[in-house]
Amino acid sequence: MKINYWRLLGSPRRYPVYTRDGFTVTLWTYYEPVTPHTSPADYAKALEQLHAGMRKVDVPSPRFTDRIAEAEDVVADPDLSPELADADRAFLSSRLGSLRRAIEDRGAVEQLLHGEPHPGNVLGTENGPLFIDLETCCRGPVEFDLAHVAEAVCAHYPNVDPGLLDECRQLVLAMVAAWRWDLGDQLPNGRRFGEEFLRSLREGPPWPTLDTVTRRLDGL
């Protein structure tokens, strides 16, 4: 089973297409697909360049903690997550809160981030990897973005704080677990993913990356 990462991490997104006088118009640019595989080194370089560019952008934006709050709302309200067991609800609530505090207490430098730079949001183009779906932008430490990518990519990204990256990986696992129990979740086998993310959190380190969990469930 192939999993689209954008569906794994959140709700389906719809892009506007307009029809006028018989013409169909969209403001999105089409890029001819090229080699589907992006090497970890190229992936890391592209993400580093994206971060460098985003540091120059000064626009109002949510903070990564707003993403945590969205997950906490799902966990806290049984009407939003009726299938989530009480023990799992308490566990997720506690983990989301403790990770928020731990990351904030580090006082790491924050900047504008992509928010979800996972493989499903990377296009291979003739000019190299290109990140899409920037509506998830938020402010936070770069390790929050890196928590969405493969371990091999992180190995090529400079000056990563390993402890902070570990905490951000746990946080992403906890947030995605919460969203999989949302009553309106539309991911096929979403509850199965929710159970796997909970199990990964309970098992402890080393914390798996999203691609590792996905491959595990795909039986690869």
Automatic annotation (TrEMBL):
It comes from the Bacteria. Transmembrane segments: none annotated. Pfam families: APH. Residues 41-155 form the Aminoglycoside phosphotransferase domain. SUPFAM superfamilies: Protein kinase-like (PK-like). InterPro entries: Aminoglycoside_PTrfase (IPR002575), Kinase-like_dom_sf (IPR011009). This is Aminoglycoside phosphotransferase family protein. It comes from Streptomyces katsurahamanus.
